[in-house]
Design goal:
The complex is a heterodimer. By secondary structure, chain A is mostly helical. Chain A has two domains: about 20-130 and about 190-275, no CATH class; about 140-185, no CATH class. Chain A is built from twelve helices and three strands. In chain A, a hairpin with a 3-residue loop joins strand 2 and strand 3 (about 95). By secondary structure, chain B is an alpha+beta fold. In chain B, strands 6-5-4-1-7 form a five-stranded antiparallel beta sheet, with no helix packed on it. Classes of the chains: A mainly alpha, B alpha+beta. The interface between A and B is large, with 88 and 72 residues.
Chain lengths: ~280, ~170
């Protein structure tokens, strides 16, 4: 019992948390930056029906997850590239590629992949990576200095005076290359994937999310999708070795009551997929 | 109940919590009439709202909103102790209202820096931000929350998900 309590206390303390240095709104602006860079590189597949469908699946999972909302809410979108990938940026920006969608066979597979990304958001992996990159680029120090300047202005003058405003904007300009470097490093990390432990943790948490009472997707579909991933040929190359990963997913699935796949869900998924063209 | 049992009960939300003062620290929240995402939205929560936590049910807190005297539910994860609150400002209009304090809270990675970044990046960067903003504006979650809930429930019913799932 004591061990169980200690484990529960540890889990509760960690929760969806972990330490982060950026504020929630800074994370949001970092997320926007990474999202904009991803869009610049690959462009959006801007089909509103497909976007709505992906969002409905994503929200079904996210709203029952341990982080049901982010600073400005979750954003789900499709990138117009044949590369097979999915990633999450800080503050709940979740991207899937057209190639990944094409390689899926059912809504339950899609839900499993989105749940894996939502788990990363929940575990704050994108935010922690953003903090690390900002420390390396010097952006974090710049942000702190800007905060101090603004705070001093507010404390002394009672308002943000002209001189402070001008110095503040100067500092913002100086921070631009650092912001660019941080965003670039982040996108590389997110597209490549995290370390083995982070990926396994997101797999387990994703399986937990899709099997929650308020969700009801079949977790075996996620396993099926992962088992078909081309090894080392894509961005999932850095993910844990396939055999070990599948075994860990199997172990996690056994702990939950799995809903069966549903023909109606698969039908609507295939109708959506047809909208992607060949 | 022994200590271990009490800790476990607290973690599971089975024991009434002490009354606690909290602040809402998010820009996208609603007060709802029950401890579920599908509960009826009552009013928009404002970043910085002072609330008193009256109890915890699952992932939700039942709160008294001091600004409007409303008793409602909100996700516990969106509440912080007053000393940990940082005002989040995400648009210029709001920013000017809070002046230096807002700038301090949002520190450096905020709208002014994003503006500089966009302008230094040229046309391609500017266009990608415009595409992103169009995406954000057409999100399901960006519109009316009651409509979003209704659409989501319809989607879940069609797909035998959530409360419509055969697995209980």
């Amino acid at each position: 019992m004591k061990k169980l309590v200690l484990v529960l206390i540890g889990a509760a303390a960690l929760g969806c948390g972990g330490s982060a240095t950026f504020t929630e709104s800074e994370e949001y602006y970092m997320g926007r930056g990474v999202a904009a860079l991803a869009i610049e590189k690959d462009k959006l597949w801007s089909d509103e029906k497909i976007e709505e469908y992906i969002s409905l699946v994503g929200l079904t999972v996210a709203l029952e997850s341990d982080r049901p909302d982010t600073f400005k809410g979750y954003t789900f979108a499709v990138l117009n590239t044949d590369e097979i990938n999915a990633f999450a940026a800080p503050s709940g920006f979740i991207f899937l590629t057209k190639g990944a969608l094409r390689s899926m066979n059912s809504e339950d597979e899609l839900a499993g992949v989105l749940a894996h990304e939502i788990a990363h958001v929940c575990l704050r992996h994108p935010e922690l990576a953003a903090n690390r990159a900002a420390q390396d680029s010097g952006l974090m120090d710049k942000a702190k200095a800007m905060g101090k300047l603004a705070g001093a202005g507010a404390a002394i003058a009672g308002f943000f005076g002209q001189r402070q405003a001008s110095s503040y904007l100067e500092m913002a300009k100086e921070g631009v290359p650092m912001m660019g470097k941080t965003i670039g490093e982040n996108l590389k990390t997110f597209k490549k994937g995290y370390g083995r432990q982070e990926e396994l943790a997101a797999d387990a948490m994703g399986v937990d999310f899709v099997t929650r009472k308020g969700v009801g997707y079949d977790p075996n579909a996620f396993r099926a999708f992962i088992s078909r991933l081309p090894q080392k040929a894509d961005s999932y190359g850095s993910h844990p070795g396939l055999e070990g990963r599948l075994q860990a997913i199997d172990d996690e699935i056994k702990k939950h009551k799995a809903a069966p796949a549903d023909a109606g869900r698969t039908k609507r998924f295939l109708a959506m997929k047809a909208g992607l063209g060949q | 109940m022994d200590v271990a049992g009490l800790v476990l009960a607290l973690l599971l939300g089975l024991v009434p919590q002490e009354t606690k003062e909290r602040k809402v620290n998010v820009a996208n929240a609603w007060y709802v009439d029950g401890p579920k995402w599908s509960s009826k939205p009552l009013e928009k929560a404002l970043d910085g709202d002072d609330v008193t936590v009256l109890g915890v049910e699952g992932k939700y807190s039942r709160v008294l909103v001091k600004r409007t005297n409303l008793t409602a539910y909100i996700e516990s994860a969106l509440l912080v102790p007053p000393e940990k609150f940082t005002r989040n400002v995400t648009d210029e209009k709001e920013g000017s209202k809070y002046s230096g304090q807002a700038a301090e809270a949002t520190r450096g990675v905020n709208e002014p820096m994003e503006k500089e970044y966009r302008s230094a990046g040229g046309a391609a960067v500017e266009q990608s931000y415009k595409d992103l903003e169009a995406l954000l504006a057409r999100r399901l979650a960006a519109g009316d929350r009651a409509k979003m809930i209704a659409r989501l429930k319809e989607f879940q019913q069609e797909g035998k998900l959530g409360e419509y799932s055969p697995v209980k």
